[in-house]
Design a protein that fits this description.
Chain lengths: 100, 671
């Protein structure tokens, strides 16, 4: 059986990639995908722990996260479409009206 | 069985009138406004008359009526309750009766003025508070009325509030009265502390067993003196009289009602009401008598040199109030109340007649510009004549009886002395002199005001509205007032003639006896008994001699005025010139206003502006607030650069925050 720590490392790497993409990328869609990456990194650690401790609550929690992620994707994509329509760009650095 | 008198109706009726006129009066025509004001004031008078008719059938002499409980704290109770005895009955009739007549007069006097509904709203409001004051059954309800009449007085003095002098006169009256109210309040606190109640019945019941404080001054003396401070403010006695002359800035009916007939007598009423306390504080009585006597003399001398017709009457009012306090100070309360009543008649009449004169010649108040009005305004002339003779103390008019009673008591009472009597007689002489001076200057000789200049004069006197709105007044020349103004004059003239007759054979005093004889201390009672059982021949002869002297003083005043202001009108100027500085100081009211300005007003203004405003307010309070906002601004100025508008920097902050939280959690876990 693969030891738990491997999963956790993979989960950490996935989450770190997500954070890095979230901070570095300028394309809104890429940022959005980075968020999904972070969520799934966390999901992986959930299921890893659940399998290790034979506890179902972790697995159940993953479903919750997936549902939320789906809803977030719907809302987020809608926002992105709205932004593109009004500002005609996908670059977040151009979406900067909210400053002093 | 005691019938239910429904005393609460008497104050409530004028309040209803004030509420209706105050809330909706702006939309009503003048006819409706005056009808409402008159109906409600008249209804209060009618109800007061009905109460008076029922009074003799009352089984328990002070009649009580409790409306609602107000304050209950431990043993202390103060209710909204009314109290009716002989004293409050007389005040009730005077206030409602004279008040109604002046309401009637005001309809004519104020007809051309702006703010008609406002005037009647205030006037009715004043009636409500004054009636609350005289009907109260405890000091606290009395204090409501006391403050309320002060408010109404302020509103009415400043009725022409666009005129600066009227607005500041209102403020002056209000502020000077605050000083008096301060004394009154402290007296109330002392009463609560030592007797645990403010109800007249309970306070007087606790006071009755106490013996007079003949050795040194104690609790009762301090309460009495503090009450007197309150009375000094409200009733314009030395040293707080300065507001009353300025109060003449208000419309003349207001001067008649509030500043002559009713409100200013509230102090006398309060002292008479608290007579059980004063009886046990001989030192305080002495102070009251001295203040009253000095005020009577002092104000009368100022009255000599005034040229404004209303100012003469104002100083005369102060002087007559001094007489009332003199009477109270020698424990002759019924004489004081008697003079209060007759004074309400003839001084109300004098003011109304003066208003009629002012109205007739288009807003002029300076007597030097009057003269010869005898024939052109006969009704005003004759009623004013009655009032002048009444106040001068010519028998058989009202003023003679009451003033003579006061002078006799000042001489014969156990607290009295010939000094009080002598100053009283001198004052009577001066009173007679300045009143006949006014009478001669106004009605005799030739008219000294130029008809063509009336507009200018009116503006000058500040009553521009009298003329400015109504061309007929400006062009009509001297004209008699309308009937609605003359009827009150005639009624009051009749009262000024016959009003004194109730004092004949001590009828008035005997009527008030249940109030003033109950619970008085033994020596006083004994003295009064000896006074009443004294052989009539002896007391009678002294009284006759004194009466003769006071009549002689009045006649002498008349003759002197006749000589100076009718026969030889060149003399006053020469005398004034000869007296030089003395005349100047009298003309300038002994510089009391200036003295107060230096002693109190200026230090107060300087202290407020330099220490409180620039020192504490600007340097401490404002500085604290300003500096803290400045600090907040600087801190936020540095922090606000976080809000770059760049989404990725926000994301960076979120990530950094999350990392910080994780690090913190790990650190906790390790520890």
């Amino acid at each position: 059986m693969v030891p738990l720590v491997y999963y956790l490392f993979l989960s950490g790497i996935l989450f770190g990639c997500g954070v890095a993409g979230f901070l570095i990328k300028r394309n809104i869609i890429t940022i959005f995908m980075s968020i999904e990456l972070m969520l799934n990194g966390v999901n992986l650690s959930f299921v890893a722990f659940a399998a290790q401790w034979r506890a179902f609550s972790g697995q159940v929690f993953v479903f919750f996260v997936m549902v939320v992620a789906a809803a977030e994707a719907a809302v987020g994509l809608a926002i992105i479409i709205a932004v593109v329509r009004t500002r005609e760009t996908l670059n977040v650095d151009d979406v900067n009206l909210l400053k002093l | 069985m005691t019938p239910n008198l429904h005393l609460w109706l008497i104050p409530i009726l004028p309040l209803a009138g004030a509420a209706i006129n105050g809330l909706f009066g702006r939309r009503f025509s003048r006819q409706i406004v005056s009808a409402i004001a008159l109906i409600f004031a008249g209804a209060a008078f009618v109800w007061a008359l009905w109460v008076a008719s029922q009074f003799s059938s009352l089984t328990s002499a002070p009649y009580h009526e409790t409306l609602a409980s107000w304050i209950r704290a431990g043993d202390f109770r103060a209710d909204f309750a009314f109290y009716l005895d002989q004293l409050s009955l007389i005040m009730l009739l005077v206030v409602t009766g004279v008040g109604f007549l002046i309401h009637l007069y005001s309809v004519g006097y104020m007809w051309e003025e702006g703010g008609f509904y406002r005037f009647f709203c205030y006037l009715n409001l004043f009636m409500f508070f004054m009636l609350t004051l005289v009907l109260a059954s405890n000091y606290l309800v009395m204090f409501i009325g006391w403050e309320g009449v002060g408010l109404a007085s302020y509103l009415l003095i400043g009725f022409w509030f666009t005129k600066d002098s009227a607005a500041s006169a209102g403020k002056k009256a209000f502020i000077v009265n605050r000083i008096g109210d301060f004394g009154f309040l402290i007296a109330l606190f002392l009463l609560i502390k030592h007797f645990g109640s403010l109800n007249f019945d309970q306070v007087f019941a606790s006071v009755t067993p106490l013996s007079p404080e003949t050795q040194g001054a104690g609790l009762l003396t301090s309460i009495a003196l503090l009450l007197m401070v309150g009375a000094c403010g409200k009733s314009a006695q030395i040293p707080l009289y300065v507001w009353l002359p300025d109060a003449m800035e208000g419309p003349t009916p207001v001067s008649a009602l509030i500043h002559a007939a009713t409100m200013v007598t509230a102090g006398v009423y309060m002292v008479a009401r608290s007579h059980l306390i004063f009886d046990r504080a001989p030192a305080a009585l002495m102070v009251v008598a001295i203040i009253g006597t000095l005020t009577a003399l002092f104000a009368a001398t100022i009255g000599i040199a005034q040229t404004d017709i209303k100012k003469v009457l104002a100083y005369s009012t102060i002087s007559q109030l001094g007489y009332m306090f003199m009477a109270c100070g020698v424990a002759a309360y019924s004489a004081g109340i008697f003079h209060l009543m007759t004074h309400a008649f003839f001084k109300g009449l004098l003011f109304l007649a003066a208003g009629s004169v002012i109205h007739a010649i288009g807003g002029e108040q300076d007597m030097r510009k009057m003269g010869g009005l005898r024939t052109s305004i006969p009704w005003t002339f004759w009623t004013m004549t009655v009032a002048t003779f009444a106040i001068a103390g010519i028998p058989p008019l009202a003023g003679f009886f009451s003033k003579d009673e006061i002078l006799w008591q000042a001489y014969s009472s156990q607290y009295g002395s010939w000094v009080f009597w002598l100053i009283g007689v001198i004052t009577a002489f001066i009173t007679s002199f300045y009143m006949f001076r006014l009478w001669f200057m106004t009605f005799f000789g030739e008219y000294r005001g130029a008809a063509g200049e009336q507009h200018a004069h009116a503006e000058h006197a500040g009553h521009g509205t009298h003329l400015g709105r109504d061309a007929a007044h400006g062009h009509g020349g001297i004209h008699e007032s309308p009937a609605v103004m003359l009827i009150p004059l005639v009624v009051l003239a009749v009262l000024s003639i016959v009003g004194g007759w109730v004092g004949y054979h001590n009828t008035f005093e005997n009527f008030l006896a249940p109030v003033f004889r109950s619970g008085v201390t033994v020596p006083v009672q004994a003295a009064q008994e000896t006074a009443s059982t004294q052989s009539h021949a002896e007391a009678g002869s002294t009284e006759t001699v004194l009466m003769g002297i006071s009549i002689a003083a009045a006649v002498a005043g008349f003759l002197l005025a006749w000589l100076l202001y009718h026969r030889r009108r060149d003399l006053p100027a020469k005398i004034a010139h000869a007296l030089g500085g003395l005349y100047q100081s009298v003309l300038n009211k002994y510089y009391v206003d200036e003295l107060y300005a230096i002693l109190f007003v200026k230090p107060l203004i300087d202290g407020s502006s330099k220490l409180l405003w620039h020192g504490i307010d600007q340097n401490v309070i404002d500085a604290t607030v300003d500096n803290s906002t400045e600090a907040a601004k600087q801190i936020s100025d540095t922090v606000r650069h976080m809000q770059s508008g760049n989404l990725r920097s926000y994301a960076g902050w979120v990530a950094a925050g999350a990392a910080a939280v994780v690090v913190y959690m790990i650190w906790i876990g390790v520890r």
